[in-house]
Amino acid sequence: MASVTVSWQEVAEAKRLAILDAIPEKWRIRECIPPATELPDVTGNYIQGFLSPREIEITEADAVTITKQTSSGNWSAVEATEAFCHRAAIAHQLVNCLHEVFFEDAIQVAKELDAYFGATGKPMGPLHGLPVSLKDQFHVKGVETTMGYVGWVGTFEGKRDDPRAKMAESELVRELRRAGAIVFCKTSVPLTLMAGETANNIIGYTWNPKNRHLSCGGSSGGEGALIALRGSPAGFGTDIGGSIRVPAAFNGIFGLRPSAGRMPYEGAANSIDGQNTILSVVGPMGTSAGSLKLLFKAILSQEPWLHDPLALAMPWRDDVEMQTQSLIEASAKDPSLLTFAIMRHDSVVQPHPPVRQALMLMEQTLKNRGHQVIEWCPQNCQVGHEIADKAYSLDGGEDLTDQIALSGEGKIPQCFIQTGKHWKAREIAALNVQKRLYQKMYMDYWNSTDQLTGTGRPVDAIICPVAPHAAVIPGRYRHVGYTSFVNVLDYTSAVIPVTNADKVVHRIGNPIEYLSDIDEQVQSEYDAEMYHGAPVGIQLIGRRLEEEKILTMADFISRELENALK
Amino acid sequence: MASVTVSWQEVAEAKRLAILDAIPEKWRIRECIPPATELPDVTGNYIQGFLSPREIEITEADAVTITKQTSSGNWSAVEATEAFCHRAAIAHQLVNCLHEVFFEDAIQVAKELDAYFGATGKPMGPLHGLPVSLKDQFHVKGVETTMGYVGWVGTFEGKRDDPRAKMAESELVRELRRAGAIVFCKTSVPLTLMAGETANNIIGYTWNPKNRHLSCGGSSGGEGALIALRGSPAGFGTDIGGSIRVPAAFNGIFGLRPSAGRMPYEGAANSIDGQNTILSVVGPMGTSAGSLKLLFKAILSQEPWLHDPLALAMPWRDDVEMQTQSLIEASAKDPSLLTFAIMRHDSVVQPHPPVRQALMLMEQTLKNRGHQVIEWCPQNCQVGHEIADKAYSLDGGEDLTDQIALSGEGKIPQCFIQTGKHWKAREIAALNVQKRLYQKMYMDYWNSTDQLTGTGRPVDAIICPVAPHAAVIPGRYRHVGYTSFVNVLDYTSAVIPVTNADKVVHRIGNPIEYLSDIDEQVQSEYDAEMYHGAPVGIQLIGRRLEEEKILTMADFISRELENALK
Prior knowledge:
Number of helices of chain A: 20
Mean pLDDT of chain A: 96
Shape of chain A: globular
Protein name (chains A, B): amidase
Number of strands of chain A: 15
CATH superfamily of the largest domain in chain A: Amidase signature (AS) domain
Largest sheet of chain A: 11 strands, mixed
GO molecular function (chains A, B): amidase activity
CATH architecture of the largest domain in chain A: Alpha-Beta Complex
CATH topology of the largest domain in chain A: Amidase signature (AS) enzymes
Domain Amidase (chains A, B): 79-551
Structural class of chain A: alpha/beta
Strand order of the largest sheet of chain A: 1-3-2-8-10-9-14-15-13-11-12
Helix content of chain A: 25-40%
Distance between the termini of chain A: 57 Å
Radius of gyration of chain A: 22 Å
Pfam families (chains A, B): Amidase
Family (chains A, B): Belongs to the amidase family.
Strand content of chain A: 5-15%
Oligomer: homodimer
């Protein structure tokens, strides 16, 4: 392809068609898909209509169940993989959630796993036979990585004639393979990755499968949409400002933003690589809290710290898990053993009615069990997201602008590129100090809650919105402060799906006092009709490097919620 | 003091005298101290001449022994503290190693500890009654922190009328107190901290107590000299390019450079604060490997990660310690269980004869026990220290220059201030990526040694010089590459004292081939006569966050060395 004669639109179109063409003919949808106005929700019955009962059985199991079946030989890896490939193919045709489709390679790997199991009677590893999807930042041998940039098509991260193109494999992928997982597709991301929605010039817009008028979130938006449609049982995204948690919340699934250094980022493509005021992190997404734990623990079992210089030598800590589990069990009798805090708003923008109700549901569930839930009101709350905004733009948007310029493609309005000031070393150092002071202030505040709980112990976790809104109306994501402050703090945060917006229940309540101009705008954009059906998830935030504790508590709380909502 | 009428020389002189004045009259040396030409070595007999037999007994015990005695009530905390205060006072008068003297406060704390022990029969914590010295970066209530800057006298980190002056206390100090330690003095540092020698306009030059023609190293030079003179059993320094390891090696003591995040830096003064391409780290120094472990473990017992946002939630790992201990024991029968690599030079500058012999002694000791010692020859070895040099100068020396300009004081020639280019965000990001690639290359090389050892396991540690020379001749520290590459890698490194330069034994050998111009210069500067008596220490380098393993192995190797040299 001679770039002189081909427009970026043609390259994008060719790539878009190549993704579709990679879907086997038998799985292409030939009938007309009803428009969103007729059928907003394509999950459940609608997508099931394309599948056999056996495929539905397999694809609607969570990663824990699937792995149990494939690791015991009840289900073959090939059968599980084919079922997910089929469902992922349908999912993509419904909401545009895939960037790369490599089903044949996946099925080949599944065959080898089955052969291994047949020969040894043992699973290959803790994820034996589990299909896993990946955000399109991870390199997989034989497959391209575009990250949504037209200029990256046919290159290695934008570099032409680089021998690593289609040859490199990210460390995470190597570890997934060693654990017995089967990677089978890569999912869509927004141009630049810096957006709470997912749109790029190759695949267009990735829609929310629960309500196709709305966004699937971003930047791990393709993961969120695919997993919500059960086109994948679980996958990995990345998060520098909310990019795992937002799509998890918007799609009604679970997601974990671990602290930096726990999951391997080595050898993955990234935006603004080398910016280290706030590090992007890798984390799992799935349909149950148990799935997140399974994936997280499986990766740690591969000792990523021996292969990724930024990974911490911190294996899965059974003692922390067991301690938390014991606390949870003992707290059935003595609820003061576990206490929580609730952050009702971040002092900049208040949550919409569906999010307020999700918070309340979670609060009530915990209170019904006897747990104390104190108010979470740290000082200068907004400083966190101000620091984050600066950290994302230190180079004046140069890196992002350059990637876009490779092809000359158009920008996507949702992408956050703050051009202009290019920071100098000393200014960055001052920002790093400001960040540390903010972290220290927050940490001291957390410690001080031992005085507020009355138990002598600080709170165990914070309950907090993921965004002011449920899965957002396109173009209306105006405030990422609910997630980005967590990145500044480098705290552990798990997203738990709680409810869906309901046009009947979540009417606009009494007039509220606005916290800011942006609050007024965001409140004015609540539209009960439009948001109907949009999922709402809530963050369960722990301290830095408390993944074992937060995953264990997320599992507990999600079960309690399920029981409460029965 | 009105700054308009007082010159920086007068401020410096007043501060210098104030330090001396803080030493009780009874401990001031009135007789003439023989010049270095007559008596280069003031350790041992000479300093003992100022002390009672009981004081000698106490001060020549290591931190482990002292703590045993003070924690069991055999020695009172007051007696131990007074002995060290006396000896530190003498030490300072011999080599200029103190910045702050607060013996009265220390003795008051010791009295309280004795009262606590008297009342409860229990020690306050794991360091009950142990006097501990601190590099003059840590804030202690009631005491100034100048970090050697004349412009910081009477301020808080150079800020006038700041209420934190003499009020703030660093997190490390808080934790030491809770562990039962007694802080009693702060030790000298070079102006800017960026130097391998210790000199500033307040106290002048800190000399090496084993040979007062030579440097005590830097930047934790005062710690090194004081501990070598047994004026303190143990203390804490910091290390961004070798600043713990160099003074440990130059003074014949032990020192640990942990990986970033293990020891709390929170609330300490620093140079170029907020530069986060290479983080400075805090680590212990002492007269035995066991002392380092005692201090390190005691600080971790205080859970620094709940109070320092940069500290990792990683307690002392008993399992790693026990595993290493078991390996060491089992390796007496099967030496292949532990293998080592030796880095003979860093491809830029070769070590002087005393350092070569120290390396050889260590190698021979391990080989005599049957351990394999392979050659350590990673590619592009010099890239590490090139990255470090850049990281130290990202702001074009602005921060350091500004601190010096506060008083208008003169620069110290040994300080490394590379003025000029002020880096931009995107250039820094590129440097961070280059650093990560270097770390990855090094890590892969380490992993690949499983093929070279023949044991199927990669090497357990690397033996490596600390500097090309023994305790250096003033003004001749030309290459910090042997330590700074470890900071880039963020590896754990313990310094073990091995030998002393000897003018008879360490003659210049056969002519050698120079690796570089700087090598030729460094080799030409070897002077057997001048270096006579200068200590030589060797690094034992482990991977990132392998402190438990390296401390356990350092203890083992130092005992083996002792036995071998008997």
